[in-house]
Design brief:
It contains eight helices and 14 strands. By secondary structure, it is an alpha/beta fold. The relative contact order is 0.18.
């Protein structure tokens, strides 16, 4: 088993890096408010002339995410920029499509996701050319969509998954994400195209946006082994796992790491300076 370096404070490693790719849910905030100490960390990193870029699997464009961050007290002057799986889906794929009809699965608040594109929402699955999966509405479960997924499999419809996460922690409760629906569809025989972590496009975009030249000077910080840490490993950058989101127990993490061979370089119980 590879050795994971346990650290108490991020200040212990900050001098080794010039840019920090922070996840949002489970790392920076809990979906309701920022975690204690995070604003201080952002200020400290900035004072050292280093960059924090938020890299998120949120299935919406970064302009919406910035508004939400501002609302919960994470002002724009605290970080360099935001890159989301929504950005990558929109810019790297959907913008290239012309007059294609899609079947929408997602929250009502995200129904404007394709605004400005030449693709059209189709309410009838049988007339659709692909499924655009942004996730479930609050309180919904994957089982609600089984009939739709069965029909889509028979039609050989491609599903575009805008958030590979299976779940997030909002407040004290878990919410099912688009990735869980995509995983079910794949197991049923459906074809899925994913955007966001752990796929490399989002990291390439973040490096470009941050004007970062050296991968060795990046530390990715996340709460999920299967997206944040696996993505960093694939992109060949250092990573740190934080126990304030998906994973909370060290023994559980060690088991998963051994089983999947997905290891972070560092482990923090919480993010503190």
């Amino acid at each position: 088993m590879k050795k994971i370096i346990k650290k108490k404070n991020i200040s212990e490693v900050v001098n080794s890096y010039e840019a920090f790719f922070f996840d949002l849910y489970g790392v920076t905030h809990n979906g309701v408010k920022p975690f204690p100490g995070i604003i201080n960390i952002l200020k400290k990193i900035q004072s050292l002339n280093k960059k924090v870029i938020f890299i998120s699997n949120a299935p919406r464009k970064s302009i919406k995410i910035k508004k939400f961050l501002n609302k919960i007290g994470l002002k724009k002057n605290l970080y360099f920029d935001v890159v989301s799986s929504g950005d990558i889906t929109y810019e790297n794929y959907l913008v290239r499509l012309n007059k294609k009809k899609y079947y929408f699965i997602g929250a009502k608040k995200d129904r404007d996701f394709c605004k400005g594109l030449k693709i059209v929402e189709e309410k009838d699955l049988e007339k659709s050319e692909f499924i655009l999966n942004l996730g479930l509405n609050e309180g919904e479960v994957v089982e609600k969509y089984i009939k739709i997924l069965n029909k889509a499999v028979k039609m050989s419809l491609l599903m575009i998954c805008v958030n590979p996460d299976l779940e997030i922690i909002r407040g004290k409760s878990k919410e099912i994400c688009a990735g869980a629906l995509a995983l079910k569809y794949k197991k049923m025989g459906g074809k899925v195209k994913y955007f966001g972590k752990p796929y490399t496009d989002i990291y390439e975009k973040t490096m470009k946006k941050g004007r970062i030249m050296d991968k060795n000077k990046i530390l990715a910080v996340g709460d999920s082994l299967r997206t944040d840490i696996l993505g960093a490993n694939k992109f060949q950058i250092d990573s740190a796992l934080v126990l304030t989101g998906i994973h909370t127990k060290i023994k559980e993490i060690e088991k998963i790491c051994k089983k999947t061979n997905i290891y972070p370089k560092f482990l923090f119980n919480t993010l503190k300076w």
